[in-house]
Amino acid sequence: MKWFKRIGMAILFLPFILILGVIVFEIVGMSVNHAATDRQTKKLQADLTEGISDLEIINVNSETGNSSGTGNHVECMSTIIFSTEMNESEIEEAMAAYYDFDNEYCIIRKEENGTFSIYLATTAPFPDNIEGH
């Protein structure tokens, strides 16, 4: 009779344990994704500093989530606004050792006020995380 009671209790609590497991997995995934975004942004900033001698960083922004609004995927997105005396092609040439510019996931753009922005988006370590929905 004790075995039936134990099995019944296990069956009763199993859904709660599974739900808790999924919630913990999602929270861990979110934490890892945000850490990856921070690491990517710091690397982008360091690569810019190393590749461009007269660099002046104006703004650094990073975001973890779904950039396109469609599908369920998570991306790590980094944007840095900076100024330099170099032109776009010289910046791309200096940064070509670190990044492949494809006009979608890695872009350098000249802004209206004479500054430049570099945008980098990569797939997150946990791409199917709840943040992508």
Helix content bin: 40-55%
What can be said about the biggest beta sheet? Answer: 4 strands, antiparallel
Secondary structure class reads: alpha+beta
Given as residue ranges, the uncertain stretches (5+ residues, pLDDT < 50) are none
Order of helices and strands: HEEHEE
| Gross geometry | rod-shaped
Instruction: Give the beta-strand count.
Output: 4
Q: How many DSSP H or I helices?
A: 2
The residue-averaged pLDDT reads 90
* Radius of gyration over all CA atoms, rounded: 22 Å
Summarize the structure.
The protein is built from 2 helices and 4 strands. It has a 4-stranded antiparallel β-sheet with strand order 1-2-4-3.
Account of the protein in words:
The protein has helices at residues 2-51, 88-95, and strands at residues 56-65, 75-83, 106-110, 116-123. The longest helix has 50 residues, at 2-51. Helix content is 44%, strand content 24%. The protein is rod-shaped, with a radius of gyration of 22 Å. A hairpin with a 5-residue loop joins β3 (106-110) and β4. With 133 residues, the chain is α+β, with helices and mostly antiparallel strands. The protein contains 2 helices and 4 strands. Strands 1-2-4-3 form a 4-stranded antiparallel β-sheet.
Topology:
Elements: H1 2-51, E1 56-65, E2 75-83, H2 88-95, E3 106-110, E4 116-123
Antiparallel strand pairs: 1-2, 2-4, 3-4
For this entry, give a set of tags.
single chain, 133 residues, 4-stranded antiparallel sheet, 44% helix, alpha+beta
